[in-house]
Amino acid sequence: MKANDADLVRFRRKSYTILVNDSSNSTTHQGGDFVRTEVHQSDRQRGTAETVGGFSSVATGPESSLARQLPVQGGSKRFAPKPDGRALMVICAYNENVKLSNTLSRFPKRSERDYDVLVVDDGSTDGSIESIDTGEFLVHRLGACIGVGAAIRKAIRIAQERDYHVIMFMAGNDKDRPAEIPRILDPVRNQGFALVQGSRYLPGGDFGNMPIYRRITTQFVHPLLFSLAVRKRLTDTTNGFRAIHLGVFDDPAIDIDQPWLDQYEMEVYLRFEVVRLGYLHGEVPCTKIYPPKKLGITKMKPITGWWSILRPIFLLGLGLRR
Question: What domains, with CATH codes, occur in the chain?
Answer without folding.
Answer: 5-61 (no CATH), 87-317 (3.90.550.10)
